[in-house]
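Sequence, please.
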């Protein structure tokens, strides 16, 4: 009998053609894992071909060759590209058996094979124990109905096999054997580095230290393993894989656990990564998702990475809160970190010289525009003033919120959208062809309220988090006790009256109703930015006069005219308008040492009153500089979008210079 051949489509994130510097290649961990499981199960007689990108030379060659089995992974960032390639292959070789796995295929959809007729089998859950059984049947009777946890394409009809497959962790090989090795990867690494790849870029690797997630957030589908107990890979396996990565000069590591920092040993793993970095010079960067309810350990891990220069956000801690509205948390089946713990963690991070950002979901089930503004204001009350990332609620195929019962209960209306638009420095570089679904409205928030809700996000991001009103709001909160909610509610109403928000509302309405519309907004004919960036730019250019009036009316109360007028001058001085973006020596003179005052706000307890030490003769100098020479609005928006100093720190990192 001739050797059977397996073609594995493990396409990376494929938005399209990107520059060499921007593209990441991942060492194919999943194919190595499944190949190892197959061979450990006795199937050593298969020849494996692994494709990681449709543009690699091997991909075109593979279309001309017959394989007995095609394995394909279904993830949102590459699924449509993978299926497009698969369709082409199946049209040439219709007899091939196609097996798909991954969380981007709905296990409960009765029409799954109407939409994806080229799939023969779908694996539910983890495949290490199922694939060896498929290979046994492929070489024999091909009776796939005897294998549990499969969905079979029976002439277009969905047929599910009975029973539940054993978890891979019932086999000690899975939890103890390092996957990154030449044995399972073959010569992939050597071949990759020898090829003239059209998208040559840095190599990355994913590492599992655990699998599963004990939480059951309604919007989440962690590899279809949410609401499952944690299972740990042996520490020896994890450390061996990390050493292989360092010795083979892999530049970036993504620890793909749902909650890294959950276990005490995670700090030991972090310290070992630093040791490897210092010994081999690799990896150069580490990425991970923090545990939600272990702030002390998370802080120690971040501190360990930061001090070594290994952490890719060495001055930022991302806190994933999603929402702080009690009803929305209840309907999301989520429990956030204790507020007191969070305040303590934020203060500790800030005192260590770091920034803190929040990851949020706008339009959660149970949220309204009013509760959403309260949530954003509560972030400020917690001391999070550096950055906030606002996402839409995406309906992942196997998440609890994607189930019919949940959608009916909460009155969800969805809209199909193209996947994330990938754009660099304002220009659209490429558009993902994958599709996703986002929530358009719920029982608690209709379309008009959703538009208002997302417009509020743009206002808070542009004005507070990009600095237009940050200092004014901080001063009023700490000096005079005004709530952030009251101030930003007033600001939103004032901006609405000027008409500056009308284009954003119209744009968001299109986005939430038109499946083909894009999220980014045009600044010029060929320049696109997110709505909050669009608002930020507009506020500093054509609309600056009316916006300034609204800001003054909102934040200047006349309580202490000397302080407020000096602060107002300082806040405006921090703004960078087009004519100032290239200024190398931009100085201001103020009666109060505002940089020191705002720096001391992060102390415990925070400084309530600005120091009255005059800085006459001293110069307050802008912290960031740009070598760009903007001659147009497009160039100005490019400077804002392409320089981190404009978007993150320039409004806060102002220093006091003495002669």
């Amino acid at each position: 009998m001739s050797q059977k051949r397996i073609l594995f489509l493990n396409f990376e994130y494929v938005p399209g053609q990107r520059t060499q510097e921007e593209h990441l290649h991942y060492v194919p961990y999943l194919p190595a894992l499944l190949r190892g499981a197959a061979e450990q199960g006795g199937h050593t007689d298969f020849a494996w071909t692994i494709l990681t990108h449709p543009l690699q030379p091997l991909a075109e060659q593979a279309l001309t060759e017959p394989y007995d089995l095609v394995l394909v992974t279904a993830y949102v960032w590459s699924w449509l590209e993978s299926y497009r390639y698969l369709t082409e292959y199946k049209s040439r070789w219709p007899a091939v058996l196609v097996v798909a796995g991954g969380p981007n295929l709905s296990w409960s959809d009765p029409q799954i094979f109407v939409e994806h007729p080229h799939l023969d089998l779908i694996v539910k859950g983890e495949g290490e124990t199922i694939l060896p059984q498929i290979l046994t049947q492929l070489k024999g009777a091909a009776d796939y109905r005897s294998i549990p946890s499969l969905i079979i394409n029976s002439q277009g009809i969905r047929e599910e096999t009975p029973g539940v497959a054993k978890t891979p962790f019932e086999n000690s090989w899975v939890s103890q054997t390092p996957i990154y090795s030449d044995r399972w990867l073959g010569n992939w690494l050597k071949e990759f580095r020898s090829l003239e790849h059209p998208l040559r870029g840095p190599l990355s690797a994913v590492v599992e230290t655990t699998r599963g997630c004990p939480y059951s957030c309604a919007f989440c589908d962690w590899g279809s393993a949410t609401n499952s107990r944690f299972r740990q890979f042996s520490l020896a396996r994890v450390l061996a894989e990390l050493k292989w990565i360092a010795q083979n000069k892999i530049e970036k590591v993504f620890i793909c656990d749902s909650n890294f920092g959950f276990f005490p040993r995670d700090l030991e793993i972090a310290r070992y990564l630093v040791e490897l970095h210092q010994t081999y010079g690799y990896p150069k960067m580490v990425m991970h998702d923090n545990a939600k309810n272990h702030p002390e350990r998370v802080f120690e891990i971040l501190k360990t990475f930061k001090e070594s220069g290994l952490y890719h956000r060495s001055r930022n801690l991302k806190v994933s809160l999603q929402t702080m509205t009690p009803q929305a948390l209840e309907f999301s089946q989520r429990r956030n970190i204790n507020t007191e713990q969070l305040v303590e963690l934020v203060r500790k991070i800030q005192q260590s010289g770091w920034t803190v950002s929040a990851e949020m979901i706008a339009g959660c089930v149970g949220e309204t525009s009013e509760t959403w503004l309260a949530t954003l204001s509560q972030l400020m009350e917690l001391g999070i003033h550096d950055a906030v990332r606002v996402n839409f609620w995406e309906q992942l195929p196997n998440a609890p919120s994607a189930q019919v019962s949940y959608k009916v209960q909460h009155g969800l209306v969805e809209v199909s959208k193209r996947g994330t638009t990938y754009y660099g420095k304002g220009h659209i570089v490429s558009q993902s062809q994958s599709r996703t679904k986002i929530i358009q409205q719920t029982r608690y928030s209709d379309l008009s309220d959703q538009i208002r809700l997302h417009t509020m996000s743009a206002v808070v991001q542009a004005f507070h988090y990009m600095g237009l009103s940050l200092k004014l709001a901080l001063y009023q909160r700490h000096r005079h006790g005004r709530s952030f909610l009251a101030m930003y509610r007033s600001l939103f109403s004032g901006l609405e009256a000027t008409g500056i928000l009308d284009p954003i509302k119209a744009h968001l309405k299109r986005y939430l109703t038109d499946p083909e519309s894009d999220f980014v907004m045009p600044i010029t004919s060929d320049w696109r930015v997110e709505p909050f960036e669009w608002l930020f730019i507009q506020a500093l250019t054509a609309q600056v006069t009316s916006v300034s009036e609204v800001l003054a009316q909102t934040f200047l109360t006349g309580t202490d005219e000397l302080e407020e007028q000096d602060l107002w001058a300082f806040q405006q001085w921090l703004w960078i308008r087009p004519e100032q973006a290239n200024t190398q020596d931009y100085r201001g003179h103020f009666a109060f040492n505002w940089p020191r005052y705002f720096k001391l706000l992060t102390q415990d307890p925070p400084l309530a009153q600005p120091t009255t030490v005059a800085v006459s003769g001293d110069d307050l100098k802008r912290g960031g500089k740009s070598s760009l020479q903007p001659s147009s609005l497009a160039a100005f928006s490019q400077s804002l979008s392409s320089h981190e100093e404009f978007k993150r720190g320039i409004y806060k990192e102002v220093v006091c210079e003495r002669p």
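The chain has a mean pLDDT of 82.
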